[in-house]
Amino acid sequence: MSTTSTPKSIPEESLDRNFWITHLGAQLREQRSGRYTVEELAERAGVSAGLISQIERGIGNPSFATLLRLANSLDLPLASMFADPGSGDDQMLVRRADRRRIEIPSQGVIMELIVPDAERKLGVVSMTIPARFDGSAAPHSHEGEEVVLVSAGRLVATVAGKDFELEAGDSLTYDASLPHWWSNRTDSAAVMLAISTPPSLGRAH
């Protein structure tokens, strides 16, 4: 009795991961082209040229800290790497399904732009922080004021070396020029809303 093997379908999770890696690579290449060679950007960002080349070819798996260093070295906010599904009605309405987003597959970090685009006076980003995430490798520091509101799970916000433990419903307001980052010390993902003025959207200085 002969058997016929049925090709296995590619898991949707793998398809999503491949999409984001390819998208991030294309965005990085577009932002770099005409400004820096791969080697020049690598020197500015403190990462290897080989890693940048892999990311741009869609075969790398960058961390959040690496993307932040690259964006900073290009003098761009991370918003420049968001997927753009199209403009909202009159640039005011943003449907949940139409949010611009960045996903870092290697760590499970997801950033969604809540406002229509990055050209606003107010920056609002929803961030999903995976379990056991440590953001100390990518501290932020930018002008203005920032508020973070935890909507699910628990996070630790570190501002100027001081830890603040936040649960769902808690918020923290601080001077954004102070070095700050977020960590998730639990076994479950957490979600927070980051509101800043002027908008930073991940720019680090």
Describe this structure in words.
It is a single chain. With about 200 residues, the protein is an alpha+beta fold. About 25% of the residues lie in helices and about 25% in strands. It contains four helices and nine strands. The protein has helices at about 10-30, 40-45, 50-55, 65-75; strands at about 100-105, 110-115, 125-130, 145-150, 155-160, 160-165, 170-175, 180-185, 190-195. It has a six-stranded antiparallel beta sheet with strand order 1-2-3-9-4-7. Strands 6-5-8 form a three-stranded antiparallel beta sheet, with no helix packed on it. Strand 5 (about 155-160) and strand 6 form a beta hairpin. Helix 2 packs across helix 4. The termini are far apart.
The pLDDT mean sits at 84
The strand order across the widest sheet is 1-2-3-9-4-7
Q: Helical stretch count?
A: 4
- The unreliable regions are 1-13
End-to-end Cα distance: 67 Å
Features:
disordered N terminus; globular; alpha+beta; six-stranded antiparallel beta sheet; 205 residues
Brief write-up:
With 205 residues, this protein is of the alpha+beta class. Helix content is 23%, strand content 26%.
Secondary structure blueprint with pairings:
Blueprint: H1 12-32, H2 38-45, H3 49-56, H4 64-73, E1 100-104, E2 109-113, E3 123-129, E4 145-152, E5 154-159, E6 162-167, E7 171-175, E8 180-183, E9 190-197
